[in-house]
Amino acid sequence: MRKSVEKSLQRLDPYPIDLYLVHLPVSVSSITTQMNEMADLVESGKIRAVGVSNFSEDRMVKAHEALADRGIPLAANQVNFSLLKRGIETNGVLETAQELGVTIMAYTPLGQGVLSGKLHQNPELLERMPRLRRYRLRGHLKKTKALIEKLEAIASEYNATAAQIALSWTISYHGETVIAIPGATKTFQAEQNAGAMRISLSSEQREAISTLSRNI
Question: Residue 89 pLDDT more than 80?
Fold first, then answer.
């Protein structure tokens, strides 16, 4: 971890490391050992905040407690969360994060592009994808048709895209607990993603989207 931080600092120079994550809950060292090392990095000024990724409820609590012993908060848990992936709502991760004040960082918030609606409009795009991803996504298209239609209908009210509505739902449905980290390979995609922050869905719209999502 110390070597990785030094390399990252060299690559980022002159920018600091605002948030440093333990990316996977798989290690030969204990969570306490990892968090103590993270605390050392914070105290030495190498990083500003500590996060974890894909940590279960129990692992998140252990990380929080280890850091608390050093007077440092656990800032974030990066997990797979979207309208297509809502496991954290029932496995204790979301509730515990809210209790501990830990921010949920939602990765893959657009379900690998499914929630953008582009694959529903142009199914031939699947043929350009790797076989495994193509097979997995093809099964999603029929199941998500009603949800995508709802996202597009709401998007028309805001002069927005289905993807922006999906992102807006992700960052608003659970108050201020969740932020999204959508991927982008082109400038316009990053700009569109950021545009989701200007959208304020009504509670009725959020619930309508949520209901269709749960039925998938």
Answer: yes
